[in-house]
Amino acid sequence: MKLATRAVHAGQHPEPVTGAIMTPIFQTATFAQDAIAQHKGYEYARTQNPTREILEANLASLEGGAHGHAFASGLAAVTGLAMLMEAGDHLVCTSNLYGGTYRLLTTILAGFGLRATFVDTSDLGAVEEAIEGRTRLVFVESPTNPILTLTDLGAIAGLAKEHGIWSCVDNTFMSPIFQRPLEHGIDIVLHSTTKYLNGHSDVVGGVIITDDDSLSERLAHVQNTAGAVPSPFDSWLVLRGVKTLHLRMQAHDSHGRRIAEFLDADSRVGRVYYPGLVDHPQHRLAEEQMDGFGGMISFALDGFDAAERFVAALRVFTLAESLGGVESLVCHPGAMTHASVPEEERIALGIVPGLIRLSVGIEDVEDLIEDLDKALSAT
Ligand code: P1T
Known about the structure:
379 residues, alpha/beta, Aspartate Aminotransferase, domain 2, Aspartate Aminotransferase, domain 1, 2 domains, 7-stranded mixed beta sheet, 5-stranded mixed beta sheet, globular, binds ligand P1T
């Protein structure tokens, strides 16, 4: 079945007792057992919960994977993945990662002996050079947050296989509507479900999807043993949000294209980062490995003061962290989402003091352009 049908139906069936069309919220901590160690497949809600299981099946189906494992946040999912490794193990990561992922790797996980090398994963040679004896995983964000650099997913999957290591793609910016890393041979897909998958800015969550049975078994062990699972209600909210994912992504994409072109043509704006622009250095790769360009756009204004004046003048875009919701958000990555990345590294990545990131929502695109136009006049 096609993606839109799976978004609405995959993993779900009318509830057998009443026929309720919507998956119930199994708001329970535990399940009655018929006799000692005889249960209906559900023992305790950290281990299994039907609402969560249905969400996991739905998201796995959209990514084309056999198994999904939901976590309490995107970073809990990254932590869950890291728990498959041991002290002394090594990861190769995209240098321009979400600031929170960078902070997790460089502070907490480093303290447990997990070593990470950050490289530009769009440069295959740099990735290969960084792989060492204890490397277990290549962790890629594509497109990256917030510079929107792409990595060739097929090439990374091939390289990882050659070296006998796992490959993982954080697919948060694209959603499975526009990019399905498993189809390119990637082993593991990760999402912050907080973003496009839920789409309504009312949940924090994460998920890991894989086709690999033994990896899935180990992830289920991590979910149950470490315990960072989402609540039944949050699982239900994401499941509900996903039902309109394909429609929302179409709007994010068409508005994203219009706004990126508007910004690109405007002399008040410096460099614009958007994979849909023909002058994006990886526009061709974007066309090859993605089915849309999405609603994330970054661009440079002339310094921090101009950025401050710009965000203060916006009326429809809201200044806030996060992305992927129905409402348009604006963010200053240097001071907000990527504040934990050292300034020198931020500048090297292109996260300059004048850099602005937009998460383009599904409002009327003319209103959004008018809002941006007026705010640019304030810079
Ligand atoms: O916020 P959480 O659900 O824990 O997800 C973390 C995360 C993981 N991966 C990517 C690509 C992300 O963008 C995020 C979270 N990002 C933001 C909050 C942000 O505003 O960029």
